[in-house]
Amino acid sequence: MRLFIGIPLSAETMDELSQLLMRLHTGEDSLRWSAPASWHITLQFLGNTSQDQYACIVAHLTKLHFPPISIALESFGFFERAGIFYIGVQPTEKLVTLQQAITAATAICGFPENRRYHPHITLARSKGKQSIRAMARLKAKIPREHRFNSFRAEAFLLYESFTDPSGSRYKVRETFAFNNIQAP
């Protein structure tokens, strides 16, 4: 199974973002847009995982105790080389501390993480040469300044990812609720 760990968005944030993206998304833009139901903030991508590793991950993530975290969206951006349109997430100290605790817990199970953490929500992916032009047109339409409402994350999730020709779909495998305690 292919797994990753992430924070789901609040319903209000999904609605706010959906309304804004309706003005940017056209059916003929050669981009593969992510469905709002699949939006999340990745904490760690694990990839292919055995049953033993899955049990190890769940056991170690269950031991983590964090309070709810305030999540603030920043501005739109592009990972040019990967052909990804995203919205950034403010890397607050609490969010980064959570991500580091998760990667330390999963490293024990065989998933070392050495990449710099860049919290974001993937909104669209490009494919082919037409999509490069579509990304350029999209850049020109992005509002320069938009303030999003923040939301309170109450849990992080362990997702299983399934790849289809039309894109990825996700299934929640485990939920790890935040506790009302002081952050470590």
Please tell me about this protein's structure.
The strands form three sheets. The protein has a four-stranded antiparallel sheet. It has helices at 11-22, 51-62, 93-107, 128-141, and strands at residues 2-8, 31-33, 40-48, 69-71, 73-79, 84-89, 120-126, 151-153, 155-164, 167-177. 26% of the residues are buried. The protein has 184 residues and is of the alpha+beta class. The chain is globular, with a radius of gyration of 17 Å. The chain has one domain (2-177): Alpha-Beta Complex (Cyclic Phosphodiesterase, Chain: A). The two termini are 31 Å apart. The longest helix is centred in the middle third of the chain and has 15 residues, at 93-107. The model has no long low-confidence stretch (mean pLDDT 89).
Concise overview:
With 184 residues, the protein is of the alpha+beta class.
Number of domains: 1
Trace the largest sheet across and list its strands. Answer: 3-1-9-10
Class inferred from helices and paired strands = alpha+beta
Q: Major sheet: size, sense and barrel closure? A: 4 strands, antiparallel
Give helix and strand order, one letter per element, not per position.
EHEEHEEEHEHEEE
How many strand segments? 10
The CATH class label is Alpha Beta
Task: Provide the residue-averaged pLDDT.
Answer: 89
Fill in the CATH topology: Cyclic Phosphodiesterase, Chain: A
- Could you say which overall geometry the principal axes of the C-alpha atoms support? globular
Low-confidence stretches: none
Helicity range of the residues? 25-40%
Number of helical stretches of at least 4 residues: 4
Under the CATH scheme, the architecture is Alpha-Beta Complex
In what range is the share of β-strand residues? 35-45%
- Please, what is the CATH homologous superfamily? Cyclic phosphodiesterase
State the separation between the terminal residues, measured CA to CA. 31 Å
Rg to the nearest angstrom? 17 Å
